[in-house]
Specification:
This protein is α/β, with parallel strands linked by helices. It is built from 16 helices and 15 strands. The chain has a 4-stranded parallel sheet with strand order 4-3-9-10, with helices on both faces. A 4-stranded antiparallel sheet has the order 5-6-7-8. Strands 12-11-13 form a 3-stranded mixed sheet. Helix 10 (308-332) packs across helix 12. The protein is elongated, with a radius of gyration of 26 Å. The two termini are 42 Å apart. 40% of the residues are buried. The model has no long low-confidence stretch (mean pLDDT 91).
Length: 465
């Protein structure tokens, strides 16, 4: 590794040196989505940020086991399936397929493992049995609850105080609970709901216990990194810690990484406000790599405001890097791929500072624009592409990048590349025969289409405005 990796650990509220449990290996659990609806922009942020985390660690020679789950049974799943008059299993299958397509469109690599909660019922039941046996959970009327006051460190991750939570009535009081803060581990069966056998009767798991069971099965009782959105810190991650530590006696995850939230046009994203942006809709307007570039232009823990104007600014920046690569390819030819940049990897080693890493890419693009040496130019091209790959960026052919729509403005017409090439050929013929009027007509036609022509070294290329 180029330098000591440091992460901001939400559990200790400070930046810490990262030391894996096993030398040369890293284990990561990332809380995935509840698959009742299409993925939205918030899901995109976490997926992209932690995809880069994995890419970076692998670039440092570390073997990464990356587990990202699907929550495929909970109240939202049951309600949505009922609305659509399909089974919960059918809803899950449909939404998981859509989730995977959304992630692929954003250049997010598939996890090492993608477990489903419903595939881990035996592990969930076993974990609950351990908690009951050790006095940390109790059965009441077919439901099983975790005893929050049995875990002295409850609230350590979120910084919340048990007495304050009770006084503030932040949780729903249920008659069968011993304490209003106790949370459900197993829910007794209700009519027309999915159900499984258990020692407490037919029922289904609670949300929190699912992640503890899946992470323990695939990564062990103690693993390196637990990742997720900051909105999951309480109660989900707080409850994961409590039940996992009490069941196993281990410390659960050593490092907790949480990404910040996204606002849209300075407003919190919500369906009620009508600004709930799905990934499927966004990639119809914005090039997926542009979305990825925009998200990585901020350090993962900071909140960001997604707006059309912000995407325009990001597009201009990404275009500058691709323009440098285009010029470099035309001037120096084939790249010599490499990832030689201490500054780039130092930025990522400093709590995954992708914003600073991208600034290194801009510096390299500037250097490439003024480079005159053949071999140095080839190395600069290769360095930009090689480092870009760590971020999941700059893997397109530079010339074709400008042929594609980075932002599809309202009313923008589709462009047929075959028609473009045909008109370019006709324009070349018109110029050769000195039919200047026709040549000018074609150029004006291109302008109306939103296409810019570039004549260089006897060759005409094109790009979108």
């Amino acid at each position: 590794m180029t330098t000591q990796i440091k992460f901001y650990n939400s559990l200790t509220n400070q930046k810490e040196d990262f030391t894996p449990l096993k030398e040369g290996e890293v284990s990561i659990y990332n809380c995935g989505v509840t698959v009742y609806d299409r993925c939205h922009l918030g899901h995109a942020r976490g997926a992209i940020n932690f995809d880069v985390l994995r890419r970076f660690l692998e670039s440092q020679g570390l073997a990464v086991k990356y587990v990202k789950n699907y929550t495929d049974i909970d109240d939202k799943m049951i309600n949505r399936a009922g609305e659509r008059e399909i089974t919960v299993a059918e809803l899950a299958t449909e939404m998981i397929a859509m989730h995977d397509r959304d992630m692929e469109s954003l250049g997010v690599n598939a996890p090492t493992l993608a477990p489903r909660a419903t595939e881990h019922i035996p592990e969930i039941v076993s974990l609950i049995e351990q908690l009951i046996e050790k006095g940390h959970a109790y059965e009441a009327g077919g439901d099983v609850f975790f005893k929050v006051d049995s875990f002295k460190d409850y609230g350590k991750l979120s910084g919340k105080n048990i007495e304050d939570l009770i006084a503030g009535q932040r949780v729903e009081v249920q008659d069968t609970k011993e304490n209003p803060l106790d949370f459900v581990l197993w829910k007794s069966a209700k009519p027309n709901e999915p159900k499984w056998e258990s020692p407490w009767g037919e029922g289904r798991p609670g949300w929190h216990i699912e992640c503890s069971a899946m992470s323990q099965k695939h990564l062990g009782a103690n693993f390196d990194i637990h990742a997720g959105g900051s909105d999951l810190i309480f109660p989900h991650h707080e409850n994961e810690i409590a039940q996992s530590c009490c069941a196993t006696g281990e410390s659960y995850a050593n490092y907790w990484l949480h990404n910040g939230m996204i606002k849209i046009e300075s407003q919190k994203m919500s369906k009620s406000l009508g600004n709930f942006a799905t990934i499927e809709d966004l990639v119809k307007v914005y090039n997926p790599e542009l979305i990825r570039f925009f998200i990585l232009s901020s350090q993962y823990r900071k909140s960001i405001d997604f707006s059309h104007d912000a995407l325009k600014v990001a597009s201009e920046g990404l275009d500058k890097i691709y323009q440098a690569l285009k010029r470099g390819a035309e001037t120096f030819g084939e790249a010599i791929k490499n990832t030689n940049s201490d500054e780039f990897f130092d930025a990522l080693a400093d709590d995954l500072n992708t914003a600073q890493a991208i600034s290194v890419l801009f510096d390299l693009a500037k250097a490439l624009n003024i480079e005159t040496g053949q071999k140095r130019g080839q190395k600069l091209i290769g360095r930009l592409v090689g480092l870009g790959e760590v971020l999941g960026l700059l893997q397109h052919n530079p010339e074709k990048w400008f042929n594609e729509s980075r932002i599809k403005e309202e009313g923008t017409a589709e462009i047929d590349p075959a028609l473009i090439e045909s008109l370019i050929a006709e324009r070349v013929t018109a110029r050769e025969t000195k039919n200047w009027a026709r040549a000018d007509e074609i150029r004006d036609q291109f302008s109306e289409m939103g296409v810019i022509l570039e004549d260089k070294d006897g060759k005409t290329t094109w790009k979108r405005k």
